[in-house]
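To the team - glutamine complex, inputs and output below.
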Amino acid sequence: MTPTVGVLALQGDVREHVRMLERCAVRAVPVRRERELGVVDGIVIPGGESSTIDKLLRAFELFEPLQKAIRDGLPAFGSCAGMILLADRVLDGIEGQQTLGGLDVTVRRNAFGRQVDSFEAELAVEGVEGAPFHAVFIRAPWVESVGPQAQVLGTVSAGPAAGRIVAVRQGRVIATSFHPEITDDDRVHRVFVEIVRENS
Ligand code: GLN
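Output:
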């Protein structure tokens, strides 16, 4: 059966993720309501502004249901702001900013600083076969530290941010600091869809 993957559609680059998921032969649906969450086999949390998505999650009464679904094993993939929302701990968040959690990591918001606010880099991502992945970073977080339950999938390979952790996984939850959805490369989405298929 074709799995259904939700894209949290409160703010951010929702359409780009929908397009990528459709390329990976799953049914992609926007999620704004708790009942819409109930029918998905996986959830993508897009890039955007994590503090805004956090506020909207609470306004739409989705924060707790989504947090519970992820804790109960719903596969989840977050890019950039989505990574922040899936981290158990966040540094440099706005006052009162909360995260859903799911990844035993500490992320630093807007970590790369003003000089390298946005940049692109080629990097190896574990589980992604073939050529290095062309990663696009836009006011991105990095993973400051990884707890024992999470696994590093990728780091920046060169330049001022060399060695910084930018892709992580814990069980059915994966996250990238960069935005695979705005490239033409669907390999990271395929890794996630594989997790969804194994689980559904
Ligand atoms: N800086 C944003 C945040 O804190 C993330 C940026 C992005 O998703 N491109 O959520």
